[in-house]
């Protein structure tokens, strides 16, 4: 039986998102609505290193907007890049909560690192600036997937 005070959003202790990227010069007609295509070659090692700045508790105001004036501090437990079975890049991020467009802004900023247009250390600078003007516009929604929501009973 469910606790009468259970709320699917507010009772969650963590959420995990995946963001898929096709990193090839030619378009994929099959994946065009399900993954973001980046035709230029990406340095995934730099993107991985830059994503480590996201781990822990930080004020993520530079990467998203809160709903109804709430705090912009979030705790990121996992931020990693993988190559999946379709040879697509997959960014996996788990946090206690997310701001509006936070994952998509993080991904687009990490793509700039992967393209060599932004130094790895700029992720730390952007986080500390706590200003939306520091990050890049959000990546397209087509690559974003909510894959898991964890609740206290699952631990």
Describe the structure.
It is a single chain. The protein contains three helices and six strands; from the N terminus they run E-E-H-E-E-E-H-H-E. The relative contact order is 0.26. The protein is α+β, with helices and mostly antiparallel strands and 155 residues long. The protein is globular. The longest helix has 13 residues, at 102-114. Strands 1, 2, 3, 4, 5 and 6 form a six-stranded mixed β-sheet that branches.
Name the overall outline: globular
Multimeric state: single chain
Give average pLDDT, whole number: 89
List low-confidence stretches. Answer: none
Can you count the beta strands? 6
Please state the structural category.
alpha+beta
The ordered H/E elements are: EEHEEEHHE
Q: How far from one another are the termini?
A: 17 Å
What percent of the residues sit in helical stretches (DSSP H or I)? Answer: 10-25%
Q: Report the sheet with the most strands, covering strand number, pairing sense and barrel closure.
A: 6 strands, mixed
Tell me the strand percentage band.
25-35%
Rg measurement, Å: 16 Å
- Please tally the helical runs, counting DSSP H or I stretches of 4 or more residues: 3
């Amino acid at each position: 039986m469910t606790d009468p005070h259970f709320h699917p959003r507010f009772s969650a202790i963590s959420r995990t998102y995946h963001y898929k990227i096709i990193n090839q010069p030619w378009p994929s007609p099959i994946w065009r609505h399900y993954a973001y295509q980046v035709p230029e070659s990406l340095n995934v090692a730099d993107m991985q290193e830059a994503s480590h700045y996201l781990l822990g508790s930080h004020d993520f105001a530079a990467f998203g907007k809160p709903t109804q004036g709430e705090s912009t501090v979030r705790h990121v437990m996992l931020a990693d890049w993988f190559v999946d079975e379709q040879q697509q890049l997959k960014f996996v991020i788990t946090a206690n909560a997310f701001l509006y467009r936070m994952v998509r802004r993080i991904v687009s900023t990490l793509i700039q690192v992967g393209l060599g247009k932004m130094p790895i250390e700029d992720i730390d600078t952007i986080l500390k600036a706590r200003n939306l003007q520091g990050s890049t516009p959000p990546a397209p929604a087509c690559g974003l997937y909510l894959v898991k929501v964890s609740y206290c009973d699952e631990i």
